[in-house]
């Protein structure tokens, strides 16, 4: 049985620390989070790192596309100063570093495969193989999710026994067939596009529904009332009151 806390720290705790950094993962744990989500893509030379955007400008002091820089160049960048001077010097972490920190902090993990264009299968293959070697066999395996169809196929191939999260933004007409074929453990849906009726329909699949990204207590209360199991949030601490209301 998949253990899913009500709150999943989004990119760590993205409102309180620079997203997808080790500082952000630590912040999520400090705020009482039991599970964190982060985004993984490959550098030009194939190193899996934590990064949301295709380009470097928003979350680092670098320029250009992630896929054009090798790891050594990306590692030199500052991934914290854009967020606050206190985080200056923060680096773009590797997937290995993020997983090792989560193991040390006893955090459950959702690895989102967020490939650079055309690198879906490759990103999933490298990330899952690495995670498989690092993750202790006696802990709940990471939930591995993606919007990318080729990435999901590869996840299923490399870690067939691990939970897979089928990420949905705009619902595709064949969502049910896809989710069943992939043996998805969860449906991870965009809270802003859903309502009580659509969540009820998703729930007929019999798998937990996770909703991203929910950052206010009323919004969390609403989606929990629809039967959503867990929410991804940038502010675990800010949603604590919603948790008390919807304790299981
Ligand atoms: O995995 C949930 C959520 O992170 C998906 O959207 O764009 O924030 O990665 P995004
Ligand atoms: Mg994500």
UniProtKB/TrEMBL annotation:
Q: Name one GO molecular function term.
A: glycerophosphodiester phosphodiesterase activity
Q: What processes in GO biological process is this protein linked to?
A: lipid metabolic process
User: EC number(s) of the enzyme?
Assistant: 3.1.4.46
Gene3D superfamilies (UniProt xref)? Phosphatidylinositol (PI) phosphodiesterase
Record-linked Pfam families? GDPD
Quote the PROSITE patterns the UniProt record gives: GP_PDE (PS51704)
Which superkingdom heads the taxonomic lineage of this protein's source?
Bacteria
Record InterPro entries = GP_PDE_dom, PLC-like_Pdiesterase_TIM-brl
Keywords of this entry: Hydrolase
Entry keyword annotation includes Transmembrane: no
Task: Report whether Hydrolase shows up as a keyword of the record.
Answer: yes
Q: List the SUPFAM superfamilies.
A: PLC-like phosphodiesterases (SSF51695)
Identify the enzyme class: hydrolase
Boundaries of every GP-PDE domain copy? 5-243
What is the protein's given name?
Answer: Glycerophosphoryl diester phosphodiesterase
Originating species: Rhodospirillum centenum (strain ATCC 51521 / SW)
